[in-house]
Design goal:
heterotrimer; A: 324 residues; alpha/beta; Rossmann fold; 2 domains; seven-stranded mixed beta sheet; five-stranded mixed beta sheet; 38% helix; globular; C: 438 residues; alpha+beta; OB fold (Dihydrolipoamide Acetyltransferase, E2P); Dihydrolipoamide Transferase; Chloramphenicol Acetyltransferase; 3 domains; four-stranded antiparallel beta sheet
Chain lengths: 324, 347, 438
């Protein structure tokens, strides 16, 4: 089986969907002739033509809005945000137009807004954000963030086939850094289901995105101490897999919530409330969360390093929780 | 197959003229009932917006639409909904928040849509429908049947960035979109002098690579003709147009706005140019309709409205728990067939 | 069917409106959608069209009065043109009546102490505050009947961790197995003597099925408090008498027409009962007293409260100094108070100062009732339905108009004999009615 990077897996997923369903088409900035800022769409203009791979002006609101209009007309547009930081320019179209339309008068709005997010690449405040919670907080949307190459292909296909607006976050740090064997045939990973990346008994780390790898590294290290960590990859943030989260908590009784988003108003807060409400009697220790602090993402390497969670921080926290 | 209808003739026949008068009057009377009767009786709650004095724009433009066209009306374009086939009873019931309506109680005012009828409603932060019209236009262009998208917006709405993005995109991609700007003098309490630095918005057209024209928005025949031209251009693949229709907002911004900021002189002046009176005068002078026929029409309209209100009032309100339904679209869609993709994709 | 006219909401943030002008008077007809009244709000002044055709039967909010949005400002009695409220509409806010409903309840402690019981019965051991553990550990302890004070904690600060409790349970099990021949089951630890921090029992009365929660109106809350407080205060005892109403019925029948003609209102049975009660109170003054600590407080005035049922609850307007009124005076007072109660025009004075109360369970068809005493009074008379019944007269069956009278009385200060004497006197008066009605 061929080994693909996370980015190549996404490309393959989109490519296969474009071949399979003529109503799928792409629009975004620099995606056609240039193949996309990160080259996710390289080769697609040549293969599918300019009616299906559309280079747009710099107009996030118009890009997303046009995607809505096309979706209403029966197409399945995939709109790229060159960096998910720029999604803010199309905010109204996502949260007011796309998200609420089905609820308000019933049509399907099958569209995907996809783009790179996340830090660790010296990108500074506007090329590193994790702004997924803006959309997790918006009923009517689905929010997906794969952490592995295999998942990335299966989930982009699921997103394109979903009849709802899906915000698809690709972690730019993972684009070329992770690779694995990815099947060449068609497969879909269901939206809304988490995955246990590593089984354990003493403590569960619930996480998503690039931090899944940080958690796995920490788990490996902690095994030497005789500490058995379970790592759960959420994969979908909205609607998230409540059952999987609670199952791990019931099994391990201690939990760390980990992500690289900033702290206040984050996914960890949502999960902590869920766990406290539904698994209170299964807790053998306080719910811990490891997140970035409440600041914009800074540029200079020592600053960004301080800002981001890392393996060492996870190991320290896990050891303290183990002693409780 | 390309449609052979490029545009309706700009001198419409008697039947079309009578239809125009019917829709103008029906719109005027229905909106009066909504704003000055039902709302004040507490039977309609929430915000109430009507398009009194601006009816010619909706009527003149919607009558140019053919099967397969899509219109994205504003909240001042009640007649567009009627002409596209929404029933009066459904519209009243929607105002009254009933369960059996196109929005099942989730939306009020004219936030009603139906892809089968080719109508996409606004969202309240206006301007959003302009980019959506571009997306519609992209698909219509690709299908090649000569269909167009008409998007309505107010002069205040043109200040939003999204509108400029949409016009730019429509221009550079040569999309079959007609931007119909209803310049009614006021955006809530903001007069045009505070809204933009140019005298007329038609200049925005060429700025984005499309023709721009300013017309008398209170003359339904002028509107019909100008929209017809723009629509013909689009059907022929020549791209978008921008039409600025000059009119005046003869009401407050909403039913709870007394609009004291509007000088009474302006209201008086524009009352003289009332679109319904003008068409009536034309029809009578040209002997296309008699006074008696017009009186009969008015009586029929009142009866239609009475019946529609009675129908709407008899419908039940939605049960509270139904608020949880229909957030996502899926195989067991709560909206039924309407929720499933209503148009098979054609390439 | 009558249609409510409401104050509309003219604007999303507008919460009230002022009626500036009524365009019709009470009793005048109005057509549907015809202008009915004018209002002024923060945002606009507007003319409001009538929601139905009919006669304006009530104006509930006067000109220049300001009321909340959705307040019923008037009522139209329609001839079928009225529009019924649409199905599944939420309960309309009924404006609270201007008067204070019912006498203020006596100052009893309002808080009901909720008793928190440990789930799992009296033998379940309890975790004390001194032992540090966790929700999981406590649950395991409870499931296994473990007293946490007996368990060694190895967690931070001596906390009992999951490891610790599981180890303890395991060790106890194997120890018990090892002592198979010895005395039976491991002893259940007695409950701790110190006040326990226990798991709260589920709230009493939680119901798992679908429910609809409707908040109480202020009037309902007051009634609820008053009723419960009364039961806690008085030693309620009941006695029931049967009264032959023939003379009263005849008197009423004979004279009601003339009465109505002269006085402009109907002659009901209520004034008869009030008169009789007032007379009886003269002879048994303790009925007209109240209890103040260790004292009996006799009231000189006889202020008789008449319970009136409203849609929204119950109200008891009071006929002041009923002992100074004759029959007609009482009849007038009853009529006036009932009318004002129904149109929500009672004042605070109208519902205060009662010394005795009469209520009418019979008006809804009840044979007799066992009403709750209206504090701080010591007795309340319940009048049952007046019905023709077969009774024995001179050893033969006769058909007579009969009614049951029930007296609820406070046995702290009213003994059975006194109560019987009181009711007996009322019975006697009613059965021998001879006072002129006109």
């Amino acid at each position: 089986m061929p080994v693909l990077t996370y980015l190549e897996a996404i490309r393959q997923g989109i490519w296969e969907e474009m071949e399979r369903d003529p109503s799928v088409f792409l629009l975004g900035e620099d995606i056609g002739a240039y193949g996309g800022a990160f080259k996710v769409t390289a080769g697609m203009l040549e293969k599918f033509g300019e009616e299906r791979v559309i280079d747009t002006p710099i107009s996030e609101a118009a890009i997303v809005g046009a995607a809505v209009g096309a979706a209403l007309m029966g197409m399945r547009p995939v709109a790229e945000m060159q960096f998910m930081d720029f999604i803010a320019c199309g905010f109204d179209q996502i949260v007011n137009m796309a998200a609420k339309m089905h609820y308000r008068w019933g049509p399907a709005v099958p569209m995907v807004v996809r783009g790179p997010s996340g830090a660790g690449v010296h990108g500074g405040p506007f090329h590193s954000q994790s702004n997924e919670m803006w959309f997790v907080h918006t009923p009517g949307l689905k929010v997906v963030m794969p952490a592995t190459a295999y998942d990335a292909k299966g989930l982009i296909k699921a997103a394109i086939r979903d009849d709802n607006p899906v915000i698809f976050y690709e972690h730019k740090f993972l684009y070329r850094r992770i690779k694995e064997e990815v099947p060449e045939e068609d497969y879909v990973i269901p939206i809304g289901k988490a995955a246990v990346r590593r089984e354990g008994n003493d403590m569960a780390v619930i996480t998503y995105g690039a931090m899944v790898w940080t958690a796995l590294e920490a788990a490996q290290e902690l095994e030497k101490d005789g500490l058995s960590l379970e790592v759960v990859d959420l994969r979908t943030l909205l609607p998230y897999d409540e059952e999987a989260v609670l199952a791990s908590v019931r099994k391990c009784n201690k939990v760390i919530l980990l992500h690289e988003d900033t702290r206040t108003g984050d996914m960890a807060g949502e999960l902590a409330a869920l766990i406290a409400e539904k698994a209170f009697e299964d807790l053998d220790g306080p719910i811990l969360r490891i997140t970035a602090p409440d600041t914009p993402v800074p540029f200079s390497p020592p600053l960004e390093e301080y800002f981001l969670p890392n393996t060492r921080k996870v190991i320290e926290a896990a050891r303290k929780l183990a002693e409780f | 197959m390309r449609s052979t209808i490029l545009a309706r003739s700009s001198t419409p026949d008697a039947a079309t003229l009578e239809r125009m008068l019917y829709y103008l009057k029906l719109t005027r009377e229905a909106e009066l009932r909504i704003e000055q009767v039902l709302y004040r009786q507490g039977k309609i709650v929430g915000g109430v917006y009507v398009g009194r004095g601006q009816e010619a724009i909706g009527v003149g433009s919607a009558l140019q639409l053919i099967e397969g066209d899509v219109v994205l009306p504003s909240h001042r374009d009640f007649s567009s909904f009627l002409i596209r086939g929404f029933s009066l009873a459904d519209i009243f019931a929607n105002w009254m928040g009933r369960a059996d309506t196109p929005t099942r109680g989730r939306e009020n005012t004219l936030h009603i849509g139906d892809m089968k009828r080719g109508v996409i409603p606004i969202i309240s932060p206006l301007g959003g429908t302009s980019p959506v019209a571009c997306g519609v236009g992209m698909v219509l262009k690709r299908r090649g049947h000569g269909n167009v998208a008409l998007v309505h917006l107010g002069e205040g709405t043109t200040s939003l960035g999204q509108v400029h993005e949409a016009m730019n995109m429509a221009g550079v991609m040569k999309l079959p979109v007609v931007f119909i700007c209803n310049n009614n003098g006021y955006a809530y309490s903001t007069p045009v002098e505070k809204q933009f630095a140019v005298r007329n918005l038609a200049v925005r057209g060429p700025a984005y690579g499309m023709p721009g024209k300013t017309i008398d928005g209170n003359d339904v025949l002028v509107v019909y003709g100008a929209v017809g031209e723009a629509v013909a251009r689009a059907r022929q693949g020549k791209g978008p147009s921008f039409l600025e229709c000059m009119t005046f907002r003869m009401t407050g911004h909403s039913a709870h706005d007394a609009a004291e900021y509007v000088p009474a002189r302006l209201l008086r002046e524009w009352a003289e140019k009332d679109p319904i009176q003008r068409l009536e005068k034309y029809l009578l002078t040209e002997n296309i309709l008699t006074r008696q026929q017009i009186n009969d029409l008015e009586r029929r309209i009142q009866a239609e409205i009475d019946a529609a209100i009675a129908d709407a009032e008899a419908r039940a309100l939605p049960k509270g728990e139904t608020a949880l339904e229909g957030v996502y679209c899926g195989p067991d869609c709560w909206w039924g067939k309407a929720g499933v993709r209503s148009q098979k994709s054609e390439v | 069917m009558p249609t409510n006219v409401i104050m509309p909401q003219m604007g999303e943030s507008v919460a009230e409106g002022t009626i500036t002008k009524w365009l019709r008077k009470v009793g005048e007809p109005v057509g549907r959608d015809e202008p009915l009244f004018e209002i002024s709000t923060d945002k606009v002044d507007a003319e409001i069209p009538s929601p139905a055709a009919g006669i304006l039967s009530q104006i509930l909010v006067k000109e220049n009065e300001t009321v909340a949005v959705n307040t019923v400002v008037g009522v139209i009695d329609g001839e079928g043109a009225a529009v019924a409220a649409p199905a599944t509409e939420a309960e309309e806010e009924v404006p609270s009546p201007p008067a204070v409903p019912a006498a203020a309840p006596p100052p009893t402690s309002a808080a009901s102490a909720s008793v928190v019981t440990a789930a799992g019965g009296p033998s379940a051991p309890t975790a004390t505050l001194e032992v540090r553990s966790s929700p999981l550990v406590r649950r395991i302890a409870q499931d296994n009947q473990v007293d946490l004070t007996q368990v060694q904690g190895t967690g931070l600060g001596g906390r009992i961790s999951k490891k610790d409790i599981l180890a303890y349970v395991e060790q106890r099990r194997s120890a018990a197995a090892g002592r198979a021949t010895a005395a039976p089951a491991p002893s259940v630890q007695p409950p701790s003597a110190t006040p326990a921090a226990v798991q709260p029992a589920p709230a009493p009365g939680t119901f798992a099925g679908p429910t609809q929660v409707v908040p109480m109106t202020p009037m309902r809350r007051q009634i609820a408090e008053h009723m419960v407080a009364s039961k806690r205060t008085s030693a309620h005892v009941y006695t029931v008498f049967e009264v032959e109403m023939t003379k009263v019925v005849e008197a009423r029948e004979r004279q009601r027409g003339e009465f109505e003609r002269r006085n402009g209102f109907k002659l009901t049975y209520t004034p008869f009962f009030v008169r009789a009660a007032v007379e009886a109170i003269r002879e048994t003054p303790v009925i007209n007293s109240s209890v103040d600590g260790a004292n009996l407080v006799y009231k000189r005035d006889v202020n008789v409260g008449i319970a009136v049922a409203l849609e929204t609850g119950l109200i008891v307007p009071v006929i002041k100094r009923a002992d100074e009124k004759n029959f007609l005076g009482i009849a007038r007072a009853v009529q006036d108070l009932a009318e004002r109660a129904r149109t929500k025009r009672l004042s605070v004075e109208d519902v205060q100062g009662g010394t005795f109360t009469i209520t009418n369970p019979g008006s809804f068809g009840g044979l007799f009732g066992l009403p709750i005493i209206n504090q701080p009074q010591v007795a309340i008379l319940g009048v049952g339905a007046i019905e023709k019944r077969p009774v024995v007269r001179d050893d033969a069956i006769a058909i007579r108009s009969m009614a049951y009278l029930s007296l609820s009385y406070d046995h702290r200060v009213v003994d059975g004999a006194v109560a019987e004497k009181f009711l007996g006197r009322i019975k006697q008066m009613l059965e021998n009615w001879d006072e002129p009605v006109l």
